[in-house]
Specification:
single chain, 88 residues, alpha+beta
């Protein structure tokens, strides 16, 4: 039951995040206050955390030390995240 509460909260946060965005605006930087603490911990430990899927493309949260949190899709053969601003 607790897991379901987190998923509902995540969906509500994603709706707020995606209101001003078009699909063409992703990857993009986002405000870290919009990401739940649980997701932030996963990002810090693993480097990424699943955010949502659009047209069968999974998008992930990531963190750049210079620019902060962002949403992007996995890229390249090794499936890694790149910051949309510095592309590191």
């Amino acid at each position: 039951m607790l897991k379901l509460d987190f998923q509902i909260r995540d969906v509500e946060i994603l709706k707020e995040l995606l209101k001003p965005l078009n699909i063409g605006d992703i990857p993009c930087l986002i405000d870290g206050k919009m990401i739940p603490l649980r997701k932030k911990l996963v990002i810090k430990l693993l480097g990424e955390s699943f955010a949502f899927t659009i047209n069968n493309t999974p998008f992930y949260y990531g963190h750049c030390q210079r620019h902060g949190y962002f949403i992007s899709y996995l890229q390249g053969y090794k499936r890694y995240l790149r910051c949309p601003e510095c592309e590191l």
